Amino acid sequence: MNRKIKIKVIMIAVISVILCTLTKSYAASYSVNINKSQLEVGQSTTLTINANEVYGKVIISADSKVTLDKNEIFLEGKPQSINVTAEEIGTCTIKVTPQNLYDNDEQPVPAEPKNIPLTIKAKATQSETSDNNNNNSNNSSSNNNNSTDTEEKEEKSSNANLASLTIGSGTLTPKFNKSTTTYAVTLEDDVTSLTVNAKAEDSKAKVEISGNTNLKQGKNPITILVTAEDGTTKTYTINAIKDGTQEEEEEEEETTSSYVKLGLESLSIEGVTLDPKFDPSTYTYNVTIKDDSITSLNVNAIATDENATVEIVGNENLQPGENIITIIITSKNGEDIRVYQIFVTKTTEEVAEVSEENSNMQMWYIIGGSVVGVLILLIIILIIVKKKKSKKSTENKSNKKEESVEIEIENKPVEKKKKTNKKSDKGKH
Which residue in 59, 214, 381, 423 is deepest, having the highest Cβ count within 10 Å? Predict the structure, then answer.
């Protein structure tokens, strides 16, 4: 019985070893926290998304009481931060919404939307109160010996950055960044005005928008002038482009030469292939980047008219996902314009490579664990067989000894009878 129990214990141990060998766990975790839950107007804090071995897209949104430096991020297996700046007094909620998160094995990671509460208070003023008790002052304009002087000492802000910039129609390119001051948007021919929403980082800064009405064919520069509290200014420009494509399509046969006169003679990007292949009459292209280290592209664009100006917007600060590069060609007199756009999709192969490596490692773990398990089972079987043979050999020897004892016992009475017969024979004689 004890031998059977030992065998069972050994078998359980072997199975446990195999399971431990085949199991490889990944510490995939996702959480959201904020450094401060209370801010004064103008103060900033950091919202951190802790993503250990987690990948995927996360959307961050909030109301107008705060501004966020990012509205979406792409997790790449490590924590990422979003800067949050308080704008108005009150309470607000920052909503963090994960979308299709997965781990190194491309398995879904459960993650619910998080609502982060934030309280915003009025900005405190710096005051200095002093009590003077001077009995020997003859120059005092007051007979009171105790006087209180309060002086507000507050430096004026020089922050002239925009916190957000959006438009009512069309797509702003590149994506808004407070450090980027030039943007472009292509509009339909029937659009005569453009709604522009611009919000300053500093609540005391002033924002003035001009040039967004009475839009004409061609390039319409819309200016957003931000004036900081101390008078510092910063100008953002949106080039609203109405290229008259609809009218030109109706008169295509008559104005075919205009494509030669104004447009691009060549268009290429170093190290990247355009899809489709460049053609002067094709105005949209697609490009895919699989190298996460690439943050800008060197775009080579040559106009058919040497007197035309070529402006390239959106080829820097490339983010994961879709980016739009806009090439604006403007005639010398500014009346004619052409717009080419390159849609750049930036993907990362790191996740796929890590997943492939993990898959290979897991395969080797399975093979190694299986081999070890089989060897241990064979050893156990050999031990059991050997013990059974030893037991049979011992039983055979014991049986032979018993048989020899029985034979001896049977032979002994025969000898006594023979001796008795001999004695009786002697009596007769």
Answer: 59
Query: Global pTM?
Result: 0.39
Structure confidence by residue, pLDDT tens digits, 168-192: 888 888 888 888 888 888 888 888 8
Nearest one of 223, 242, 215 to 328, comparing CA atoms: 242
| Cα–Cα nearest to 120, from 152, 97, 95, 94 | 94
Count of Cβ atoms closer than 10 Å to residue 294 Cβ: 13
Please report which confidence band the pLDDT of residue 167 belongs to, taking 50, 70 and 90 as the band edges: very high
139: which 2 tokens?
A: 């120059």
Tens of pLDDT, residue by residue over 23-51, are: 444 457 778 888 888 888 888 898 888 87
Q: Are 98 and 30 in contact (CB under 8 A)?
A: yes
Measured in whole angstroms, how far is the alpha carbon of residue 233 from the centre of its chain?
35
Six token digits for residue 53: 């071995």
3-state secondary structure (DSSP) of residue 318: coil
Residue 195 near residue 172 (C-beta atoms within 8 A): no
Whether a cis peptide bond, with omega within 30° of 0, leads into 276 is yes
Q: Which CATH number fits domain 27-121: 2.60.40.1930, 3.40.50.2000, 3.30.470.20, 1.10.260.40?
A: 2.60.40.1930
Query: How many Å apart are CA 319 and CA 75, to the nearest integer?
Result: 12
Q: In whole numbers, what is the pLDDT of the chain averaged over residues?
A: 77
Give CB contacts under 8 A, 24+ apart, made by 352-360: 354/77, 354/104, 355/104, 355/105, 355/106, 358/24, 358/26, 358/104, 358/105, 359/105
Please tell me the predicted confidence (pLDDT) of residue 27. Answer: 56
Distance CA 226, CA 374 (A): 75
Q: Among 210, 184, 168, which residue's Cα sits nearest to residue 176?
A: 184
How does DSSP assign 357-378, residue by residue? HHHHHHHHHHHHHHHHHHHHHH
Domain 157-242 has CATH 2.60.40: yes
What architecture is the 244-362 domain classified under in CATH?
Answer: Sandwich (2.60)
260 contact partners, CB below 8 Å, separation of at least 6: 280, 304
Could you say which DSSP state residue 12 is in?
Answer: H
Q: Of the given ranges (242-246, 286-290, 417-421), which has the lowest mean pLDDT?
A: 417-421
DSSP tag of 25? -
Q: Give every CB contact of residue 106 below 8 A, 6+ residues apart in sequence.
A: 351, 355
What CA–CA distance (Å, rounded) separates 415 from 429?
22
Tell me the two tokens of residue 370.
């299986």
